[in-house]
Amino acid sequence: MNLSLIIPVYNEQDTLPLLFDAIYQTMNSLDRTWEVVLVDDGSSDDSLAVLREYAEKDKEHVRVISFRRNFGQTAAIAAGLDYSQGDIIILLDADMQNDPADIPLLLAKLDEGYDLVSGWRKNRKDNALTRNFPSMMANLLISRVTGVELHDYGCTLKAYRRPVLEGFRLYGEMHRFIPVFANAVGARITEIVVNHHPRRFGQTKYGLERTAKVILDLFTVKFLISYSAKPIYLFGGAGLILMLASAALMLYLFVRRIFFVIAVTGSPLFQTSAMFFILGFQSMLMGLIAELLVRTYHESQRKPTYTVRTKINVADHD
User: Fold this and answer.
1) pLDDT score recorded for residue 313
2) Which CATH class name applies to 3-226?
3) Rounded CA separation 264/268 (Å)
């Protein structure tokens, strides 16, 4: 299998016929073997019945996975990755705001040697206040924190080579951070402008509350990318700062006691200094415990701390 399309589906019964028509029109023009894996995320309408109908008509290309309840877009994408077979993965939404006609553009960019091609909805057709502006700010924040500069993390339409998707699991709302994880294993990343259409049926499944989830997930991603292999740098660094602050306060209190004869223990700065020292020491201990956990994780699963792109005249080893 050369190409797998993975599409999360949630209450899109009216859109699915249009989606399949667009997919067949695009994929039949490509000289590739392909499949489309549609993950019904606990839809409460007749989406599953529509998917079952298309799957029975086309057993060669259409695969359907149905969740027992709604688990969210990230879980649906993770399931699609688990059950797909293609060497190249294309993600897109089922609401037809992404255009399947853009798939050849993504594939052409992959053929230039990239490992991940991200879609950029430059002319986005969503509400400017509740969708576009929060998304723009989130994209700026993610790019600044992670160092992976993309205009549109929230665009589902992306193309991946399968190796850059291996080695990590997706939780929460972390599907939008896949480029960050891919960059961590050395993926070559680029983006192209893609079409974006107004929603024709139903209502959007996301609101402003999603922004808070993205920000919280960003903390997790930053930790996993920057400190998962050496957590002592985070916990130990924070502990060192707290202990230095404690020492500075104690020095100030000591100088004040010597030159101005002001009692040390009567000042609230003394309690603050003691608290900083205790917190700093505890933080360093947490860092050491985290280091032990990291080593247990890598060694118990024989998981290397590196990734290999190519091997030349090198035999595989156990």
Assistant:
1) 46
2) alpha beta
3) 9
